[in-house]
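Researcher: Next sequence.
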Amino acid sequence: MINMIVLKTTRELSLMREACRISAGALRVAGAAIEPGITTAEIDKIAYDYIISQGAKPNFLNYEGYPATACISINDEVIHGIPSKKRVIKAGDIVSIDLGAAINGYNGDNAATFACGDISEEAQRLIDATRESLYAGIKAAKNGNRVGDISSAVQQYVEARGYSVVREFVGHGVGASLHEAPEIPNYGTAGRGVRLVPGMTIAIEPMINLGQPQINIMPDGWTVKTADGKLSAHFEHTIAITADGPVIMTEC
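Model: Next structure:
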């Protein structure tokens, strides 16, 4: 991760918007493909083909050794689930997809949790709360505010509803590198941390557990699961800080 925050010019933001547009499109088509019986490898191929068709490249593929286009995490998997021909999605599963695209020297990054068919009310409430916590965080991402205002907004939203925030993984800056400064935790104190200024581009990504916040990393070195085996959900947008408020760059 780059240690210095890189502010983007108007031209750079324009270039980055294309990467974000393609990232959002890939997430949309991958999510739409979810159905009982499909494998996570098949969904990964759909995302890969879409990104390539747009003239971009999947920025997760081979990033620090990651072997796929998308992270596809099911039920109690929080993040970084590796797609597999053997992993079949079933009715009632909740499926988190995290992916991004790179083009013109810039990156996009986004994630969402999808339902496979009919899911439990408990699972749906978790998905809804996680999505809304993302937008609570985005609302706090105003010029002049601080990173802690984002973090606090996410934490307060989910904890008020009885859910817990994963602390070991956080959001981040995005730009010429997939991961840049600053880190954007999903927990924290309002008024603390780096000040937000126009030209900053960040990924806000709540990872929210139905049960306790503790997680375990699986032997594959990537897949992260909830320690208590309960469900987890994940949403993410890449946004730009502007003088007129936050702009969601990965919105379809």
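Model: The chain has a mean pLDDT of 97. The chain has four helices and 17 strands.
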